[in-house]
Every structure is written in structure tokens, then in C-alpha cells.
Amino acid sequence: MTVAPPATPLRLTIDGEALAHNWQTLDALSGAAKAGAAVKADAYGLGARRVAPLLARAGCADFFVAHWAEAADLVDLIDPRRIAVLHGPLTDADVAFAKATGVRPVLNSLDQARRWREAGGGLCDVMVDTGMNRLGLAAGDLGQLAGLEVDVLHSHLASGDEDSALNALQLQRWQASRGTLPHRRAALANSAGIALGAAYHGDLTRPGLALYGGIARAELADVIRPVVQPQVALLQVRQVAAGDTIGYNATFTAPGPMRLGTVALGYADGYLRCWSGQGMLRTGDGGELPVLGRVSMDLTIVDLTHVPHLTEGDWLNVDYDLPRAAAQTGLSQYELLTGLGNRFARAG
Ligand SMILES: *Cc1c(COP(=O)(O)O)cnc(C)c1O
């Protein structure tokens, strides 16, 4: 006998049309370059197996993951030759996987390049460091890669989301590096870099955040649409009297009679304690339900005093406008997305 899996009281609604719109917008803003997509970290928490096919249908042909296991998770859905692994090959097993599937490694060091060459080489990407000092070969070492068959020569902006002099410096170094190693395509821009203008676009761009509704730079605010909406079910409602305290450490005291609702959302789901006394849930028609007291691991308490019709099992929307939530909490938009845990049912 098979039993249907239990229903979950927590879901992340993903607007597939908005996702497709955002990719197409970023592709158009990339001008002569083609936009790819960063789908690392499970597509920033949205679910890479859901997101990657939607992006492919929208026209996206190049996908970037960080880990080899993230590529392995996609090879039955996406042409492996269009997936590149940003971390590069650390072990012979990584190289063997690349050879067997056609997934491209992004070579980040002379050691990775040697490992790739010793295995017979083949089409690969290369990351050159232009000032971030995170991953990538030093420009002066690129000459040692002569003979490798390079598809994309990448670099990555450290401060694309700011008006920093580092942007122009990295652009200039990336352009100079293009003269030292033959390659088919070149890429520099993440979401923010796309908004910096044509000089930053090369042949291919690598947006991530903006695909998922994040606003990487103010220039993108009017054209990027929100994609995710967390929703949670009410588990319990109760009445309290003036003077009653609410939640761990009794940080909120009811000033008068109140009606409370407890929802199945907590810091284990990525709704971190910084939302304590700050967050807002909403009824379907937008009514405000402020978070009261501490957010706990699996539960959060909201004020239902003005919505007497709400009862156990009703669904609520969690306010999660990314730029606003980032300003409110001090978390980055990236953290707000990637922190959403695996107890959310991802639904489209
Ligand atoms: C994560 C990542 C991206 C995407 O950056 P966003 O700011 O999310 O658009 C692009 N390139 C590299 C190398 C990355 O690591």
C-alpha cells in the first residue's frame, strides 16, 4: 500500500513567468552578449531542477554551478556540455566526471589546468583573477595554458553592485587577459555587471540574483520582477489577556486582549531571528499581521486581533520583498534567498 506524503504547512511559490521574464530582460540588457544563468546553491534556494528547465525554455543555454554534485543533479535535464562548474576540478574524480558527461570545468589554478591536461584536456573554461583574489588564475600565468581548448574565459567583478573604481580596473585587466589566451567566448558580468554597460558584457553574461527577483543595482529595480513568495499555514490560534507574554524570553507583552496565530515558520527555515518583532505576514487580501516576540526554530507568532475570521489551516503570505527585506534585516538579498530551507515545498 502506498500512502500520499503528508501535506506540508510551508511552501515557496515560484512565479515561472516572472523568472522567464527576468532572464529575457537580462538577456536583452546584455546587448550583443547572450545571458546564461547561475543556478548554483540549488538556484539560490529556489530548486535547480525546477528552475533550470524553465530558464532553458525561456532561451537560456549556459548554466553555471559551483559544485560538481550540483552539475550531477542537472545532467538529465540540461545538455551537460552547457553546464560549467565554477569551482573547477579539485580531484581526479571531478575530471573523470567531466570527461564522462561533457560538463565543462572552469580551471582556476595552474594545478587544475595540469590535472585537466594530464587527463587529455578537451573543451574547458578558464577563470582569470582581475582583482577579487578569490578564485582564478593570475593573469601572468595564463600563458602556461597555451594549447588548452578554452570555451569561456571568465573573470568576476568584486564590486559590480557599487560605483567603484575597481569595476573599470577589472574591466581593463579582463580585456588585457583576452589577448593572452585564445578562447571562444569571454564573460565578466554577474547581474550587477549587466547594468554597468556594454563594455562589461563580452560574449556571455552570468546573472544569478536578478533572475530570482533580487535587485543587484538600482538600474534594475523597474525591470526585474519578484519571483518567490513564501507562504505558511496557521497551526493554532489563541486569545490572550493584557499582561500575557509571548514566545521565548517573553519579549512581547500584550497591552490588551489579543488574538494570536502560530505559524509553521522559523529560523530553521531561514526565517532568522532578526525578524523577531520586525517581520510581517499578510492575509490573502494584504491585511497586516505583525510578527510578535521571538522567532523560534519551527514557529513564529503573529497578531490576528484584527482578522477574527482566520482559523487553523488558513494560509498566510510572508512579506519577503528582497531589497526591502535586506534593508530591514541587514541580511543580503543572496542570504535571504539561499537561506530558505528544505522544509518549504517549492511550487510553481
Ligand atoms: C554567483 C556568481 C555569479 C552570479 O552572480 P549574481 O550577483 O548572483 O548575479 C556570476 N559569476 C560567478 C563567478 C559567480 O560565482
Task: Write a structural description.
- Strands 3, 4, 5, 6, 7, 8, 9 and 10 form an eight-stranded parallel beta sheet that branches. A six-stranded antiparallel beta barrel has the order 12-15-18-17-16-19. Strands 2-11 form a two-stranded parallel sheet.
- The radius of gyration is 23 Å and the shape is elongated.
- It has ten helices and 20 strands.
- The chain has two domains: 15-214, TIM Barrel (Alpha-Beta Barrel); 228-320, Lyase, Ornithine Decarboxylase, Chain A, domain 1 (Beta Barrel), CATH 2.40.37.
- The model has no long low-confidence stretch (mean pLDDT 97).
- The two termini are 29 Å apart.
- Helix 1 packs across helix 3.
- The chain is α/β, with parallel strands linked by helices.
- 25% of the residues lie in helices and 23% in strands.
- Strand 4, helix 4 and strand 5 (83-85) form a beta-alpha-beta unit.
- Bound molecules: pyridoxal-5'-phosphate.
- Pyridoxal-5'-phosphate (PLP) is lined by residues 38, 40, 86, 156, 190-192, 206-210, 216.
- Pyridoxal-5'-phosphate binds at residues 38, 40, 86, 156, 190-192, 206-210, 216.
CATH topology value of the largest domain: TIM Barrel
* Molecules bound to protein: pyridoxal-5'-phosphate
- Biggest sheet, in brief? 8 strands, parallel
CATH homologous superfamily name of the largest domain? Alanine racemase
What sequence of helices (H) and strands (E) makes up the elements?
EHEEHHEHEHEHEEEHEHEEEEEEEEEHHE
CATH class of the largest domain: Alpha Beta
Instruction: Please give the number of β-strands.
Output: 20
Q: What structural class should be given to the helix and strand makeup?
A: alpha/beta
CATH architecture of the largest domain: Alpha-Beta Barrel
Radius of gyration: 23 Å
Residue-averaged pLDDT: 97
The portion of residues assigned to helices is: 10-25%
* Number of helical stretches of at least 4 residues: 10
Q: Return the domain count.
A: 2
Anisotropy-based shape: elongated
Distance between the termini: 29 Å
- How large is the share of residues in beta strands? 15-25%
Poorly predicted regions are: none
